[in-house]
Amino acid sequence: MFINFRGEELRHNFISHLETAFKNDEINYYIDTDEPRSQPIKILFDRIDQSDIVLAVFSKRYSESKWCLDELVKIMKNVKENKLRVIPVFFNVKVDDVKHQEGEFGGNFYGKNHRERTIIQQQEWKEALKSAPTMMALVLANFM
């Protein structure tokens, strides 16, 4: 299981609790802290390809991260090719805000971090963000 999430926002709270639960139940999972910092980012795409399931944990700041969005594009391509299953988790963010890039999530998507993105990259991100919420999901609100 590959876990796609905004590290700066969730690594030391929700994800750390999830990681503890997975360890206790002996669930094989992968998060990027398992890789040395010197590895090329392509290693994350390899880990996605090696996974059977992905937890895509959407949060308010998820859409700030090019890496999260690039991973999501790869994930959704694999889902489309029936190589992978994805379970979206909406953590303190509305499903429609992700799907339509609205609210604080949308503000972060259209913010300063993505001014240099290409039109093609922007379209791929939008398509992935529209597709993920169409899967059976978990909605977790009012945490933290």
Characterize the biggest β-sheet: 4 strands, parallel
The value of Rg in angstroms is 14 Å
- How many domains comprise the coordinates? 1
CATH class: Alpha Beta
DSSP strand content:
5-15%
Question: Judging from the principal axes of the Cα atoms, what is the shape?
Answer: globular
Derived from helix and strand composition plus strand pairing, the structural class reads alpha/beta
What is the number of beta strands? 4
Helix content: 40-55%
| Series of secondary-structure elements, N-terminal to C-terminal | EHHHEHEHHHE
Count of helical stretches: 7
Spatial order of the strands in the main sheet? 1-2-3-4
Task: Write out the CATH superfamily name.
Answer: Toll/interleukin-1 receptor homology (TIR) domain
What does this protein look like?
- By secondary structure, this protein is α/β, with parallel strands linked by helices.
- The protein has one domain: Toll/interleukin-1 receptor homology (TIR) domain (Rossmann fold).
- 45% of the residues lie in helices and 13% in strands.
- The chain has helices at residues 7-10, 14-24, 42-50, 66-80, 95-100, 103-109, 119-131; strands at residues 2-4, 53-58, 85-91, 138-140.
- The protein has a 4-stranded parallel β-sheet with strand order 1-2-3-4.
- Helix 4 (66-80) links the parallel strand 2 and strand 3 (85-91).
- Helix 4 crosses helix 7 (119-131).
- The longest helix is centred in the middle third of the chain and has 15 residues, at 66-80.
- It starts with a strand and ends with a strand.
